[in-house]
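User: Sequence in, structure out. Go.
Assistant: Echoing your sequence, followed by the structure tokens.
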Amino acid sequence: MTFATLADNVARVREAIAAVQAAEGISGDVRIVAVTKGHPPDAVRAALRAGLADVGENRVQEALAKQAEVGEAARWHLIGHLQTNKARSVAGRFAMVHSVDSVRVAEALAAAAASGGVRVPVLVQVNVAREARKSGCAPDEAAALVERAGALEGLELKGLMTMAPFTGDEAAQRRVFGDLRRLRDALRASGRPLPELSMGMSGDFRAAVAEGATVLRLGTVLFGERPQ
């Protein structure tokens, strides 16, 4: 696969981000994490050539295999669910872990980071829509998890992450993303700056930008459908 249209796809996404921000009267940098899940390592190389240094993977083993082949040129993000038994494999290997969804995961990752002499930038994943099949703490549990994760020496708490339901209803998408932003703003009163809001994927990134996303996790809109 050559990913010949990737540069054009990136340009269209950036234009869409700018258009949404202009329409909403907002500004600020929005980082694109190129999600290469299911694609070969050439997708990572193509992303780097297109100016996308941030690369996201859902599965730890797939990410580590690509890291071994592509090297350290990319800033790797773990965006999928993290099992505690994979914490040692993750600490020190990722620029950010987006999916800290429980105290147990936070403590396991912090312990692995401490044993390796590193700090891991993390986001607390919140299941804003309370969907049974999705990971993330409940919104009413977020404050306690933020407090615990922020107190662990091996972690560097950077913000929050969520996923909206798979729907074409932009108003519904915006409610979920807006709720995460409002939750973040409320948590800031506890003294945690929480600058990052990781929200928005290929089908809903415009709604996420409108609600203040700082990080987008984009796969299909950049690379096309994943190989079967």
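User: And one key feature?
Assistant: The longest helix spans residues 6-24.
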